[in-house]
Amino acid sequence: MAEEPAAPVACPFCGLACDDFFDLGDDLDSKGCGLAAEGLAIPAEGGGPRLAGGAVALDQAVTAAAKLLRGSAAPLIAGLGSDVDGLRAALALAERVGATVDHLASDGLFRNLSVLRRKGMIALTLGELRSRCDLLVVIGADPRPGFPRFYQRWFNASLPAPIGGGTRRVLFLGAEPLPETRADLGEIPIAVVPGEISRLAELALGLRSLVAGDYFSAGSIAGVSRNVLTDVAQRLGAARFGAAAWAAEAFTFPHGDIAVSALLDLIRALNRTTRFGAVPLTGRDNGMGAVQVATWQTGYPLRLAFEAGTLRHDPTHLSWRYRLAQADLLVWLSSFRREPPPPFDGPVIALTAPGTAFAAPPAVCIPVGVPGLDHAGDVFRSDGVVALRLARRRPSTLPRAAEVLQAMNEALAC
Ligand code: SF4
Question: Domain 109-282 belongs to what topology?
Answer without folding.
Answer: Dimethylsulfoxide Reductase; domain 2 (3.40.228)
